[in-house]
Amino acid sequence: MCQFENEIISFFGNLKSKINNLKSTITMIQVNQLSKTYNGTTVLNISNLDIPKGQSFGLVGNNGAGKTTFFSLLLDLIQPSTGYIKSNDIQVNNSENWKSFTGSFLDENFLIGYLTPEEYFYFIGDLRNQNKADVDALLAKHEEFFNGEILKNKKYLRDLSKGNQKKVGIIATLIGNPEVVILDEPFANLDPTTVSRLKKIIKELAENPNVTVLVSSHDLQHTVEVCDRIVALNKGEIVKDIQTSKETLQELELFFAV
């Protein structure tokens, strides 16, 4: 290999390193003294949490740990009892400006049951200033993920299986190229082939330094595979905050086995 080729390889290697360093220095999600209380019971209590821009962030925990509560607060679906969350320096419960760069799917309640998948995709496209050609291009890109079960079947969303409803919700989240993607339990109700294809989609998103991906799941293995960082919640509090490594899955399995 000639010196010029070595210099080119070195240049792009250094550039990638600088991009990764930049990703870790810009905070996309900032949590400060956040809590949520229902009838005197605190279900979430996070004093401080920063999620850098470009990070793929996994949230794990048992039922009732506070995962969905955290995402609901992040999306301003419920109000905090104390504290706040900022997304790209915008306090989410004081402004709606964060919505323009955020895509999310928590459950089938995000869907509109009396629409077909195509009608729903184009509806979301209109909300995000995407024309029909833009939406069609995204749908074509993820044709394998749909596995021939979603488009051109003349079924309403309410008549699809839970797994196929989830497929629609996940891909609709990506319309408009959001900078923040939030997926709650994305692997649930999906068959093994679809899970494998979904992990590929999430990994591709995570490779983009401008996209911050947040995933919550009961499935430790899948979450570890697609996330750079794992935060474990227990009774609403952070009990582990781990940069993903070869040992992460075993560490989490041992923790939750207690």
UniProtKB/TrEMBL annotation:
InterPro entries: AAA+_ATPase, ABC_transporter-like_ATP-bd, ABC_transporter-like_CS, ABC_Transporter_VariousFunc, P-loop_NTPase
Keyword ATP-binding assigned: yes
Keywords, comma-separated and alphabetical: ATP-binding, Nucleotide-binding, Transport
SMART domains assigned to the protein according to its UniProt record, in alphabetical order: AAA
Domain ABC transporter: 29-257
Cited Pfam families: ABC_tran
Domain of life: Bacteria
A GO molecular-function descriptor: ATP binding
Protein name: ABC transporter ATP-binding protein
Source species taxonomy: Bacteria, Pseudomonadati, Bacteroidota, Flavobacteriia, Flavobacteriales
